[in-house]
Q: What sequence folds into this?
């Protein structure tokens, strides 16, 4: 009889089952990574949806109930909730279990989650750099992490076997895994993700506030660059509020540089310095091409709703 290898984890508990939690549930099931997948969701409607979609084997109202007997715990709520969830699960989490997360900011995980966990529990923070502007358990898809980066930011004294298991988890879901310090992660993501989202929120806000331009004109003529900004600016308000509040220093640093560079462009336009504009636009076009060539574009399957970028 052929021997079957046991799944990587006996029981995985997803705390929060929105876009990322549901995508993980689907990707983990597809790859047979856990014997059992359970979740915690505060609303009865979300628990019912998770069960109806077959995302999980059981759904609990309380995080402390979901983590009992789990050897993998994934925090997949907005990051502002991480500290309270860690305080709730700390007393009941199993010895030897791995606690990871998918939050978009990383230094705050070591700060807010670490102190609540017993010493025999392994904290390995992570961030899949993959997503869409959609939220909730119905927006997930198993392919979300394929060929996308997942950044792990374990503390210096992390248990290497626990780190290896989290690397194996993401690799089996199709991701490319990179390791760095939480501080470096937060600086890099401030410029590649957080400030771009702030700019999108701001430009859509500015356009909608313009008295001389009606709302219907904003919608009607949004085929220009504005349309791409509206996709980003449709991202979840709670999630993004928490990101800015928890990556304050790096975002303010990058925003300072952004404002300086914008001022230089403002001058170039004012003084008719076409070469300055042309040189920058040539450089940025090359960056876009290298992103496309590297295949770093998320294509959500069409579930009868608009795909990202449409
Ligand atoms: N949306 C995206 O594109 C990406 C998000 N992330 C990170 O993943 C995490 C989850 O984001 P999404 O799945 O997009 O959000 P989502 O809004 O789709 O799902 C979050 C879920 O957590 C639940 N929740 C909120 N507070 C809770 C609490 N205290 N206890 C239990 N459940 C709670 C919400 O009801 C919701 O079902 C965030 O920390 C975010 O920074 C990471 C990569 C990409
Ligand atoms: O939809 C998009 O373009 C995104 O940028 C998704 C996203 C949002 C937050 C993250 O931490 C990582 C990826």
A:
């Amino acid at each position: 009889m052929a021997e079957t290898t046991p799944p990587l984890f006996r029981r995985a508990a997803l705390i929060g089952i929105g876009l990322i939690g549901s995508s993980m549930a689907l990707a983990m099931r597809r790859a047979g990574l856990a014997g059992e997948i359970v979740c915690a969701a505060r609303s009865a409607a979300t628990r019912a949806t998770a069960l109806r979609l077959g995302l999980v084997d059981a759904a609990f109202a309380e995080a402390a109930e979901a983590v009992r007997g789990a050897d993998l715990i994934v925090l997949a709520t907005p990051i502002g909730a991480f500290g309270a969830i860690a305080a709730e699960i700390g007393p009941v989490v199993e010895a030897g279990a791995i606690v990871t997360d998918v939050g978009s900011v990383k230094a705050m995980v070591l700060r807010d989650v670490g102190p609540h966990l017993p010493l025999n529990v392994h904290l390995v923070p992570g961030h899949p750099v993959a997503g869409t502007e959609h939220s909730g358990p119905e927006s997930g898809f198993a392919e979300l992490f394929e060929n996308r980066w997942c950044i792990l930011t374990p503390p210096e004294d992390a248990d290497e076997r626990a780190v290896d298991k989290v690397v194996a988890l993401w690799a089996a879901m199709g991701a490319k895994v990179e390791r760095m310090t939480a501080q470096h992660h937060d600086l890099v993501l401030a410029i590649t993700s957080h400030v771009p989202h702030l700019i999108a929120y701001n430009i859509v806000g500015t356009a909608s506030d313009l008295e001389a331009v009606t709302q219907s004109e904003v919608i009607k003529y949004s085929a220009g660059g504005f349309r791409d900004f509206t996709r980003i600016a449709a991202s979840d308000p709670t999630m993004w509020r928490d990101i800015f509040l928890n990556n304050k220093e790096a975002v303010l640093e990058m925003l300072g540089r952004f404002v300086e560079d914008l001022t230089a462009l403002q001058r170039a336009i004012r003084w008719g310095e076409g070469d300055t504009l042309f040189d920058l636009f040539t450089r940025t076009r090359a960056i876009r091409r290298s992103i496309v060539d590297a295949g770093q574009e998320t294509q959500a399957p069409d579930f009868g709703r608009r795909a990202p970028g449409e």
DSSP finds twelve helices and nine strands in the chain.
